[in-house]
Amino acid sequence: MEPTAEGASSSALSRLATLVRLQALDRDRDGKREFTDGLPRILAARRQAVTALESKVAKSTEAVTHAKSSARQRELELKSKTAEIQKLELQLNTAKTNQEYQALTQHIQRLREATGREEEETLVLYDEITKLEASLAKEKEALSVAQREFDAYQLACERDKEAALLEIGQTDGARAELVARLPRDVVETYERLRVGNGGVAVCALDVRTCSGCGMMLTLNDQAKVLGGRELVPCRACSRILYDKTTIASLRS
Ligand SMILES: [Zn+2]
Questions:
Q1: CA distance to 59, 70, 73, per residue, from 124 (Å)
Q2: Labelling 5: which of 21, 43, 115, 154 has CA 20 to 30 A away?
Q3: How far, in Å, is the centroid of ligand 1 from the Cα of 240?
């Protein structure tokens, strides 16, 4: 049976309406898929804050270890100098000449002065260690907070991902139903146009321009779109054009 003019018009228009609905559904699914696909990157970027703190803690731990080991080294040196002073002091008792006594006294004096300076330096070093340990403790606390925050964020993202995948799965049937209403060539054109066009294959008319690329339509094309009797591609971007009011009139 030949379709009547009325029939052809309503079928073109209903195809257009189906395409618009299909695209709305696909855009929603695309957004969800974009989120699930991009999640590893989002999480890696977020994890960087934790990694930065981890390396800070590692550096500070190393600084504390280093400072403590040089403090131990200084303590040992001080001990051996003190022992040397004690030994020299004993020798004072057995000094044979006045000259020898004087020389020993001067040597002891110099060693005592040096030891005194080193003791002060060691005290400064211990102060330094205290400060380093305090700042390390703060960094460790910050790291643990950041780690907890990241874990919570990751958990929330994983839940969102599961929900998104579930929702995509739940719309599979609705999508197949819409696709089944369209002729194969229209579906193919639609799929082809979606690629490289940000997923947008069907564009609403914005007064006289294509809302996809901004190209102004000829009066003839505009009339065709408003009429809704055929699928009209934009001459610039090839996307299929529709008029919102015309589509709405079909639904009402
Ligand atoms: Zn266009």
A1: 21, 12, 14
A2: 21
A3: 8
Q: Is the pLDDT of residue 181 over 80?
A: yes
pLDDT digit string (tens) for 10-68? 688 999 999 999 999 999 999 999 999 999 999 999 999 999 999 999 999 999 999 99
Same fold, 5-36+172-251 and 37-170: yes
Q: Across-strand partners of 203?
A: 241
Mean pLDDT of 160-182: 96
Backbone angles phi, psi at 136, to 5 degrees: -65, -40
* pTM for this predicted structure: 0.71
Question: What CATH architecture applies to the domain 5-36+172-251?
Answer: Orthogonal Bundle (1.10)
Please state the length of the chain: 252
Residues with a beta carbon under 5 angstroms from ion ligand 1: 210, 212-213, 215, 234, 236-237
Is domain 37-170 classified as CATH 1.10.510.10?
no
3-state secondary structure labels for all residues of 49-117? HHHHHHHHHHHHHHHHHHHHHHHHHHHHHHHHHHHHHHHHHHHHHCCCCHHHHHHHHHHHHHHHHHHHH
Q: Where are the domains of the chain?
A: 5-36+172-251, 37-170
Quote the ligand 1 centre to 216 CA distance (angstroms).
Answer: 8
Residue 234 Cα to ligand 1 midpoint, Å, equals 5
Where are the strands (E) in 81-237, listed by range?
Answer: 202-206, 209-210, 232-233
Q: Which of 3, 2, 13, 4 is nearest to 229 (CA)?
A: 13
CA 32 – ligand 1 centroid, Å: 26
